[in-house]
User: Fold this.
Amino acid sequence: MRFIDKLNAIIGRTVAWLVILMVLGTLYNVIARYFFSNYSIELGELVIIMNSMVFLLAAPWLLHLDLHVRVDVFYSRLSVKQQAAIDFFGTLFLLLPFCAFIIFYSWHYVASSWKIYEASSQTGGLPGLYLLKSLIILVAVLLFLQGISLLIQKYQLFKNPKQKHPEHHHEEFI
Assistant:
């Protein structure tokens, strides 16, 4: 499962760079609009698309790094074995069914978009909205695979709580 961990890390690190492009695109549009009375609909939509890509495609990587939001009232006080059990069963009964639900129920939605090669509804907007909608399924699959990897890691940690679990260097995102 190291392959899926590495794949999600590569994807996550790559899309993280889009944040810089989003800032530059937004800055350009703000300056163009307020100083030159000009606004690029295409660039505005591109910034929204990049934001969607960052939000969606970074999710599996952040799951791998254990950086998702968690209610940590009791969790931090539990033993390593208890934490591993909670993570294991949470993944098994919440994450994986949720991913399967998303894949199943978005399939027709995405296929319909591909069928008509859906584009932006804005005049002068971007074509290829169907590609963005495809990310819904892609991310659900990547999260599902990352969940399988997480299940294996947490099971091993539960069986041997004294083993050193992987340290993630959260400050080294990019």
